[in-house]
Amino acid sequence: MTVASVAPNAKVSTGDILMGHNDWNIDTAHTGIHFSVRHMVVSKVRGRFEKYSGTFRLDDGDITRSFVDVTIDASSIDTGVADRDTHLRSPDFFDVEKFPELRFRSKRIERVDDTRHRVIGDLTIRDVTREVSLDVEYGGHGKDPWGNERVGFVAKTSIDRKDFGLTWNQMLETGGILVGDRVDIDLDVQGVRGAAHSAA
């Protein structure tokens, strides 16, 4: 997710972030947490989480010393089908009554190049915590018309849902399984700091 004030196709690096230790809040109005998983082997089901909050601290002197902390409301899962979402909230999957939140906290950050980093951290789903690695690309930073400073990133990772206790499945008469084990996760993240003023 690039920030509006960054020229199209401009080469930007994390070194362009404003100097010092910068604390940012995730702007949920301009951020997306999306996922996809195989259904009946032949296609993918896509979904998202609608409610979450998070902060990150950027150290542009050494971006690898930055930190990310995100909490997701498990009950806010949305795949576009109400019955399926109800099943996903049930004990067969997220069991949101017992485990209302998913959480990611970074442990370390590794530099790949000027615009890409690998963020390694602990992801907690239900009562299971596993280390995961996100491939993160920096999009740029700038100011919106209301004077808020903004910064953008995109990130990708994949997990095996069984590693987190999400083991429910059904065998198909034609062979294979109903729900795939691999979950692909795509994040578009925009952070904001500055005046508390809503922006379109």
UniProtKB/TrEMBL annotation:
UniProt xrefs under Gene3D superfamilies: Lipid/polyisoprenoid-binding, YceI-like
Leader sequence residues: none
Lipid/polyisoprenoid-binding YceI-like domain residues: 23-192
Highest taxon listed in the record's lineage: Bacteria
InterPro entries xrefs: Lipid/polyisoprenoid-bd_YceI (IPR007372), TTHA0802/YceI-like_sf (IPR036761)
SMART domains: YceI
Pfam families per record: YceI
Name by which UniProt lists this protein: Lipid/polyisoprenoid-binding YceI-like domain-containing protein
Native source species: Labilithrix luteola
